[in-house]
């Protein structure tokens, strides 16, 4: 705020103060503002012998003196101690020098609870009240310095907001619908208007070179023209350096003394008569998708703000260009890019996980195709006795007693059961009596020499003897005995005592303990691999911890249907029979049919099904 000017004729001191107020009101930089502010402060306090303003330097992060009083300045290093304390303690500091009868005051400058500088003063008073008044005046005056920083931050925020808005407008231009070529043309025109360029060129990276894809204000251009080649060369310079390349045309004297070797930007400037050129690479991570070259034919060169604007745009546009470029690729181009990306991951730097997975996959494929292992055909297995004898009813009768049941071990000659023989014994006595009668009659006929009677009675005697022998044999066979040592496979008559049985009815089945045969049910899809003489191993459900070897002795060419699938009966012989093995036990047997590749073992079932399905559907 500009102070009132009185009508009193100004003295030399008043004129100097008015000049400081004018400088304070119209300062265009922080240095001018702080010098005028410090001079006015020192004049108002009156008793100040020296003063300094220290502000934070954004480049080095240190505090440097930006204004001193009086001018010309002498050695003010003695104020450094009190200024350092004010910066460290973030509060006002008073230091009295009794030898010089002076007082040094340090006061921090804070913005948003952050110390951005300090003011150091030396006054020639030591009165406590006077020092307190100086501190109060200094506290109110420092508000101008704080306001300077607030205004600077506000201006930076406004500039940043404006820059972001204009950059987002450029991004919105890039996001418009249309082909990639149309989008690049719109972006070039937008940049030419926004940055007041005479021409803007946009190029796309292809391999290790850059191709010009769009020129501002030019819907079509000759790709083989020399100026287009110059643009490509300038873009490739930025592409190779991966950083912004700026060129400003020197004056005539400097140009005359320049070396003959010219850079691509210098050659472009001579070709287009441009005074300033700026090339910006479009980086997507470590990949450069293209470059933008801006040129001006007259006026000032590209400034730092414009470079920052282009850096912000170059950080947002590359993903859009890359996405649109990928979307417009053809099928073969996409496949080639995907293959190239895969090869870069496998053989290029980094991507250790991909390399590890590829090595693991390669080792797995080598194992599957080159390694042969023993292939075994699995089949459901049942144990049967090699010989099974049936104990059947020798005649019609009734069960008198039963001594064994299924699962019992029997010895040779052991009685299994008995049939009721009382009727047989009665019949035996009957025929024995008739035999005696016929023998008596035969002796009488022989005594009387009756030849005809002798023949008739002899025939009757033979009939009685035969009937007697039959009854005696039936009585012997009424006890069913085991013909060898073995185990009762089936039969339980303990609940049928007194029940009638028919002649020939199976009562028991006995199998030997030391001789077994293995019955394997092989699926029809695997039977082609099974041959006589092959070996294998059998695991019984009840003896799972003891695999039993066997050898195939017979392949039966007859299939049986079970659970919707066909199985062939294959017989095998055990090489050794475990003591706990019993007929009727079930398990799983595996027949070794020879070495096969691991890949074939894992996939042959599917490939066989696929061949059959294709054959079914093929015309």
Helix content: 40-55%
Strand line-up across the major sheet: 11-20-23-22-21-24
How does the major sheet shape up? 6 strands, antiparallel, barrel
Structural class: alpha+beta
Extract low-pLDDT stretches: 1-10
N- to C-terminal distance: 100 Å
Shape: elongated
Mean pLDDT: 82
What is the strand content?
25-35%
Give the beta-strand count.
24
Count helical runs: 14
Radius of gyration, Cα only, in angstroms?
Answer: 59 Å
Describe this structure in words.
The chain is an alpha+beta fold and 619 residues long. 43% of the residues lie in helices and 30% in strands. The chain has 14 helices and 24 strands. The chain has helices at 12-25, 30-45, 80-89, 128-174, 180-194, 226-241, 252-256, 264-272, 304-327, 331-347, 352-370, 422-447, 451-477, 598-617; strands at 48-56, 63-69, 93-97, 102-111, 114-123, 199-206, 209-215, 245-248, 276-284, 287-296, 372-385, 389-392, 397-402, 409-410, 415-419, 479-481, 486-490, 500-501, 506-512, 516-523, 535-540, 543-562, 565-574, 586-597. Strands 11-20-23-22-21-24 form a six-stranded antiparallel beta barrel. A five-stranded antiparallel beta sheet has the order 2-1-5-4-3, sandwiched between helices. A hairpin with a 6-residue loop joins strand 1 and strand 2 (63-69). Helix 2 packs antiparallel against helix 4 and helix 6 (226-241) runs antiparallel to helix 8. The longest helix has 47 residues, at 128-174.
